[in-house]
Design the sequence.
């Protein structure tokens, strides 16, 4: 396990450059630790280790991922997200506690939040939809990334037309959130849901538009027909 961690870090160091590191920080308001490796290169490196990782036990790989998360480096968090997703067909209910800890303790920016939640946690929720109740608890968290996670976990299920009632409930919990990244998160969730349930999402927006932050509203209506957008944006 130690060899894998050192080997992946060595590959990240070899593929890093200062120009990429400087440009990456421009996408974040908070300070983020980078090696300076472009995302496609990170994914290529992950793939180079895929055979070795997939031959391991799931819980051992989760242990490797835990150590990668602890480093605080963006690229290591992306590796952890990718490798944890390799085992999505083997997820078990107890794994939720692992994912929840990663969100609460290690996620510190929108990119690692979205990468983990869109895929690893989103896939888990589609397998075990009873855990949506925990996402509603997430939405009431004092941690901004946990609140964002409540929404962005449901992006892919929303696009598939799943969990509309729960999506609208979570949007209602987050409705007046003052954090712009949480607003963007639940607005994105509503936009994804509108692909299959445009009328229902539109009705939610109209009902709440007098108090809904404009950031969330604009995200939610982005894929709606122009006449709907005009009506939603009207004073």
Sequence:
């Amino acid at each position: 396990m130690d060899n894998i961690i050192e080997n992946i870090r060595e590959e990240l160091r070899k593929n890093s450059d200062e120009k990429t590191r400087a440009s990456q920080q421009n996408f974040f308001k908070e300070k983020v630790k980078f090696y300076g490796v472009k995302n496609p290169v990170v994914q290529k490196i992950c793939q180079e280790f895929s055979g070795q990782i997939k031959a391991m036990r799931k819980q051992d790989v989760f242990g490797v991922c835990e150590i990668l998360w602890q480093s605080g480096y963006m690229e290591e968090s992306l590796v952890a997200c990718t490798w944890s997703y390799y085992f999505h067909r083997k997820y078990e209910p107890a794994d939720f506690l692992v994912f929840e800890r990663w969100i609460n303790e290690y996620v510190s920016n929108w990119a690692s939040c979205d990468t983990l939640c869109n895929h690893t946690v989103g896939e888990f929720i589609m397998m075990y939809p009873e855990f949506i109740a925990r996402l509603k608890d997430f939405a009431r968290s004092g941690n901004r990334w946990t609140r964002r996670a409540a929404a962005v976990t449901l992006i892919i299920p929303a696009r598939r037309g799943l969990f509309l009632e729960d999506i609208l409930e979570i949007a209602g919990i987050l409705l007046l959130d003052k954090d712009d990244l949480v607003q963007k998160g639940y607005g994105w969730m509503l936009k994804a849901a509108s692909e299959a349930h445009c009328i229902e999402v539109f009705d939610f927006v109209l009902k709440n538009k007098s108090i809904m932050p404009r950031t969330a509203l604009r995200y939610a209506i982005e894929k709606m027909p122009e006449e709907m957008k005009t009506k939603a944006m009207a004073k």
